[in-house]
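A quick word before the example. In earlier lectures we treated sequence and structure as two separate objects. From today on, think of them as two lines of the same record. Here is Pc20g14540 protein written that way.
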Amino acid sequence: MSAVSESAVSESAVSESAVSESAVSESAVSESAVSESAVSESAVSESAVSESAVSESGDSDAVTSDSSETQRPSIKYRKLLPRIETTHDALILRPAPFSEPQVEEIPIPSMLPGSVLLRILATPLHSYSKLGFDFYNPKRSPHEQPFIPGSSAIARVSRVGDDATALRIGQLVFFDSVMKGRDSPETIRFCNPVYHGFDPQKMEVIDSSGFADGSYAEFMRAPLENCYPLDEAKLTGHPREWGFAYTPAQLCALATFLRPFGGLSSIDVKPGETVLISPATYPNGVAACMVALAMGAKVVACCHDDAKLVQLNQILSHTHNGSCERITTITWTGNGTKDVRNINACGPMDAFLDISPPGAQGSLHLRTGIMSLRPGGRVSLMGAYDELEIPNLFVTRCNITLKGNWMHERKDVLALIKMVEHGNLRLNEEDGCYVVGEFGLDQWKEALEAANKLTGIGESVVFSF
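And the structure line, produced from the sequence above:
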């Protein structure tokens, strides 16, 4: 009986000892878990404090710490993406019942194959721009849809398609508004967006081409082939860096010179030749005189307005473009024989550029100019009238070449840009080029009025953005 009892007591002690050890073990485990939890919470707390410090510093890319233990690896500078514009302001002409243009906020044009999106910097208005706006009415205008008027422009490339090979985003370009059909350049021709072709069928093709809208807007979709890169460093750079310091408004003069340059190039005017230009005091005639002098030719400028001819001679004779006394002025008298004699007193004429406005219909100046040419002389016909009188017998006997020319070719644009970039043709005020007005789109009425009154030698008006 005593042995059994002692054995039971012994087993009970062993059991209690095991329980005690188990409790101790569980307690240790519990304490260890609590300790690890505390350490984890402490680490989380320190991490939160660190993140809070980073957040409050405002520059997560340049985080520094005084402690080497908490220093984080540096992160490369991340450039923020530019804000993407989705709308822009444009001057829009709408059919009736709207009676005048409106500046509206519209979506930026989407890209098409063979197109480029331009950010317009400056675009010129012309003496006939107001007439183009007045022409837009339901009875006379061929346009049936709203459209944006415009002209040529100085712009920056904002977006290009995958088919662009030379143009790049941000590049300074000259946009030429004279467009031609890509697969039929001789039959599909229009001057965006003033003149839309020769017949209704071609007008319909152009209106549906995606390029009917012009440059009187902040953005414009243009054909790739009508955008010409410019040497920005040379044209806009400081004179101390051998630049010309032209502004976009001054560079718009490229559009003014292109038309007469195309006419002179079409009859292959060479340096040293004598060119008769008439009428010489209209905007196109003045530009013709200036570009002919820059080409190295001698100029005989003719017009009915003697006072303007004197002013033209005074301005161009003292400019870089008209140096070496290579310009002579002659006033038309209306007497053909006397006028021919006066012109021939300046020497034999190699070429004659007629760039008359519609008001010259019925004038004898064309006949007189042709009969002033030497045998084998050339005539470029760029006048804006339907009928003209030609001395056919004189033309036949003297082998005179008559060349009709509508605007200019692509090669002419490239050649003129080179002349400006190389300094052969200057665009400063001292060279006879004057920007007399810069306007915003919301000032379109004032801009049209100022352009309509352009009568000074070498004056221009532009929209600037």
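Notice the following. The two ends are 117 Å apart (CA to CA). We will return to this example when we discuss secondary structure assignment.
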